[in-house]
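Hi everyone,

Forwarding the result from last night's run.
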Amino acid sequence: MLQLRPNCECCDADLPPESAEARICSFECTFCARCADTILRGKCPNCGGELVPRPRRPAGKLATHPASTERVHKPAGCKRAAGVPT
């Protein structure tokens, strides 16, 4: 089951479980659409995998299967992935 992480690893923007702006790779690294499209150009900086829209869990299922509350923030990794010097 997807963790539905609560934020973008690059810019730390909030990404609630119902957000259509969340992008993930096959390892569930999570980014906002803006960072995924502009900085990362659709490629995960952690594994090199494709970033795709994260599925949204139906609201009724969030009560029994809640989203993760663990925030992951790695802004330096995102800059390197985009070829921007750190």
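The CA atoms of residues 79 and 86 lie 6 Å apart.

Cheers,
N.
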